[in-house]
Design brief:
27 helices, binds guanosine-5'-triphosphate, single chain, binds magnesium ion, Helix Hairpins, Rossmann fold, alpha/beta
Length: about 650
């Protein structure tokens, strides 16, 4: 595969937003180190975009204006030596003049350039209006307005940068012109360098020599001492004419040029106070309040869904189970009756009592969050953590949903932009302990061994999610694509859209999951009435008894758990009567819970996986998780027995 490669460097003053842009572009593939021999941080990353493999380097920010800082030396050397295909000069729009001073110097390096006019929101709130077209015209460089913290304009910026590279032949690079005398002297010096091989452009070298730049001087001194002595002589001539040092003259002319451009391109209007919507944005993305609000919102959402779900589920259950006598009178209490009630009807009830009470509110809330704009803020806040797992910040949403129920969570992975990202997110999601898993963890381990053991299992679960997520990120073929999120402003959610989206998703879920649930429970019931359960338990005993050290009966209850995970515990309690679960040893409890946590996505989740990714991938995930859980359970048994 011969992919087109590009090298892009981000350069600009300190604190303008380079790193924020860098993170947007390369969130999943970063390498932070130091510049060779320097203590200045070097951040590099890769992304895939429009068929290009793009390496991005975040050059250190330039702090000072007059003296040559380490950061500036590193930056200019990189640009001159590595010759990036294009330099993105990040500029703070709210202090345009000061930033243009550096832009003009960058231009002298004669490298293809694009300007990211960042912090447009800050400029706006300070009452600075910038005429983009005019700025582009004055500089002769494409300018893209951005608000990096909201991801606004970042994708377009990247497009513009690529466009600049693709435009061949590159047009002559625009330059600042200095006063006549200085231009003349620059010309003179350039004449002397005509036959000298230089890393930097000759004009740049001439200007830097006149400015008395030590590093450049040293380099040229080595190559051709005549040039440096000529430069010294010319500098003295300029000093005599202007009465200031040559470097002061050049700096002030450059300053004048920057000021001129800034004044021509910007207009001061009365500052615009941040609106309510903007204040809400700031509050919800703030380093402290943002996370506090996030935690509070999540708790509120879960609390609402579980209280509502629990209540409605119980109610529906009561009503539907009230139909049992009706069934008994219609189909009798024989095998047919058992199959109709225990197979078809109980499957249907399981479906209804999950779908209506939990999934509908989940979707409603999800779409309200999405439509209002809060979802993208959540993604933004979680971006860093999720990147560590090889996922985009957006994947946090399905994962969050997964704690309630894996089914809507898997379907929710659709918000990811590419098939690969969707699959990775869904895989991780199926490992999240859903409400039913919580019942097992709390009902068995929490109840009998204490809450600290339950918490430890949760922590272990997160660890597994992290490790397997990271692993999947490495092994799933394909490349992580840039997922540049752009936040729109907060707005009132549009209820009609939300209801429509919710209805659409719920209907889809019913269509795919219900037949599977009913067929599954029918098959289980059939196995039960035909006396197959005991033989099945016996067949499974090498795994359940020999490897996992559990009672043989768990083979059957775990199979039932495929329908709804908590069934595996509920049935186990019933089958172990009269002693109940208390007969299990602590080690058995932990092993059983571990297996139940991971052993399979429930049948409805499998259905959702099939729907989204097809049979093959769904089967692969399912088989992988079964094997993983069994191996894990056995290893845990041996480790725990060693310790105990
Ligand atoms: N309001 C607003 N703030 C921004 C924007 N872009 C960046 N910031 C903030 O500006 C600050 C500096 O951003 P960085 O990306 O760290 O800046 P940098 O250019 O990498 O800085 P150095 O690494 O020191 O050169 C951070 O607090 C950002 O949150 C923007 O578009 N709008
Ligand atoms: Mg930075």
């Amino acid at each position: 595969m011969n992919k087109k490669k590009l090298l892009i460097a981000l350069a600009g003053n300190a604190n303008v937003g380079k790193s924020v842009i860098f993170n947007h572009l390369t969130g999943l593939h970063q390498h932070i180190g130091n510049w060779p021999g320097k203590t200045v941080e070097r951040a590099e990353g890769t992304l895939h975009f429009r068929g290009y493999t793009i390496d991005i380097v975040d050059l250190p920010g330039i702090y000072s204006l007059s003296t040559y800082s380490l950061e500036e030396l590193v930056s200019r050397k990189y640009i001159a030596v590595e010759r990036p295909d294009v330099v993105i000069n990040v500029v703070d729009a709210s202090v345009l003049e000061r930033n243009l001073f550096f832009t003009l110097q960058l231009m002298e390096l004669e490298t293809p350039m694009v300007i990211a006019l960042n912090q447009m929101d800050m400029a706006k709130s300070k009452g600075i209006q910038i005429n983009i077209k005019k700025l582009e015209h004055l500089l002769g460089i494409p300018v893209m307005p951005t608000v990096a913290v909201k991801g606004v304009g970042i994708a377009k910026l990247l497009e513009k940068a690529i466009e600049t590279v693709e435009k061949t032949p590159a047009k002559k690079h625009p330059q600042v012109t200095y006063g006549e005398e200085i231009e003349e002297k620059i010309g003179k010096l350039m004449e002397k360098m005509k036959n000298v091989q230089l890393v930097y452009p000759p004009r740049y070298v001439a200007i830097k020599l006149l400015e008395g730049d030590e590093e450049i001087e040293r380099e040229i001194q080595r190559i051709n001492p005549q040039i440096t002595s000529a430069a010294k002589k010319i500098a003295v001539e300029i000093e005599n004419i202007h009465g200031h040092t040559c470097s002061t003259v050049i700096t002030s002319e450059r300053y004048e040029a920057a000021g001129c451009i800034a004044r021509a391109a910007q207009k001061l209007v009365s500052p615009i106070k941040p609106t309510k919507v903007e204040r809400l944005h700031n509050l919800t993305t703030h380093k402290v309040t943002g996370y506090l609000i996030l935690v509070f919102s999540l708790l509120l959402i879960f609390y609402t869904i579980f209280t509502f779900g629990d209540y409605t589920s119980g109610l529906l259950s009561d009503v539907l189970y009230g139909l049992e006598p009706l069934f008994a009178s219609a189909f009798g209490t024989g095998i047919v009756g058992a199959l109709m009630w225990g197979g078809v009807m109980e499957g249907l009830i399981a479906g209804i009592t999950i779908v209506l009470p939990y999934i509908i509110p989940f979707y409603l809330i999800l779409y309200v969050l999405e439509n209002s704009g809060y979802l993208s803020r959540i993604a933004f806040l979680m971006d860093y953590v999720m990147h560590k797992m090889g996922l985009h910040g957006k994947a946090f949403i399905p994962i969050m949903l997964g704690f309630g129920c894996n089914v809507p969570a898997c379907l929710g992975c659709r918000i990811m932009e590419t098939q690969r990202e969707r699959l990775l997110a869904a895989f991780v999601t199926t490992l999240v302990p859903c409400a039913a898993t919580t019942v097992i963890i709390l009902g068995l381990v929490g109840n009998f061994l204490g809450i600290q053991w339950a918490l430890a299992l949760y922590l272990f679960n997160f660890l597994v999610i992290f490790v397997l997520g990271r692993l999947a990120f490495k092994v799933v073929p394909g490349e992580p694509t840039a997922l540049i999120m752009e936040m729109h402003d907060y707005r009132w959610p549009h209820m009609k859209t939300i209801l429509k989206q919710t209805w659409f998703r719920v209907a889809e879920f019913i269509k795919i999951a219900f037949p599977l649930i009913i067929v599954g429970s029918f098959a289980l019931k059939l196995a039960e009435v035909s006396g197959l359960l005991e033989p099945i338990a016996a067949v499974l005993s090498p795994v359940t008894v020999a490897w996992l050290g559990l009672p043989a009966i768990t083979g059957i209850t775990l199979i039932f758990g495929v329908l709804r995970k908590e069934l595996s515990l509920v049935m186990l309690a019933a089958l172990l009567a009269p002693t109940g679960l208390a007969i299990l040893t602590p080690v058995q409890m932990v092993v059983f819970t571990l297996v139940a946590m991971f052993y399979i996505p429930c049948i409805a989740t499998i259905a959702a996986l099939v729907k989204e990714f097809g049979w093959k991938k769904a089967l692969f995930i399912t088989v992988f998780e079964i094997v993983f859980a069994i191996v894990l359970g056995g290893v845990a048994l041996r480790l725990l027995t060693l310790v105990a």
